[in-house]
């Protein structure tokens, strides 16, 4: 299959492609979570929910495979370096009690994926202690065992966990496409710069396109 993308046509096989949804957690998208504790206005992020929902349900209808990630730490914080926990002296640190439970801790309400994009039983859910989805997760081995070659990305935030995960994936040999209207940042200029960087120099990291172009491409011969 192929689709019109930037900087040029993206070719992929449906059977070896997986949809990757990065960190669409209440802790980043709703007030009172990790995103806000870092001093961010979190209201921008929920604007992508309708487009993400459209792609997710179309992907499910077509029988595609899906992986959701969560930035999540163990309750005993053994996988959270002090450098990460203390950086920037946030209002609430990882593991502290907030309005949605302990910040960025597995099993806490704030750490859950937003209800609109709730994973289904047959979809993978990967808890990752870093910004990138391959660090300390075993995901590469699972993708290899499943014969996955291409990854279509959505999620937050564009320049942090999405970009880090795409770069990690690119280095491991995956063809990566980012859906422009299904990713968002607390900083619009950082989102734009990230889209530009990913597709620069002949798709050095990967491709970008709108979700509409992806969905339309399923009619291509
Ligand atoms: N701070 C910020 O923009 N993002 C993160 O800390 N994590 C993710 O992007 N998931």
Percent strand: 15-25%
In the sheet with the most strands, the strands line up as 7-4-3-8-9-10
Compute the number of helices. Answer: 8
Measured distance between first and last alpha carbons: 7 Å
Helicity range of the residues? 25-40%
Question: What ranges have pLDDT less than 50 throughout 5 or more consecutive residues?
Answer: none
Average pLDDT level: 97
Largest sheet: 6 strands, parallel
Question: What's the count of strands?
Answer: 10
Q: What's the shape?
A: globular
Structural class: alpha/beta
**Distinct ligands:** tricarbonodiimidic diamide
C-alpha Rg (nearest Å): 17 Å
Q: What's the helix-strand series?
A: EEEHHHEHEEEHEHEHEH
Describe the structure.
The mean pLDDT is 97. The longest helix has 16 residues, at 188-203. This protein is of the alpha/beta class and 221 residues long. The chain has 8 helices and 10 strands. It has helices at residues 26-29, 34-37, 49-61, 82-86, 139-145, 158-171, 188-203, 211-217; strands at residues 2-3, 10-11, 17-22, 65-71, 97-98, 101-102, 124-128, 150-156, 175-184, 207-209. It binds tricarbonodiimidic diamide (TIU). The site of tricarbonodiimidic diamide has 10 residues, from helix 6.
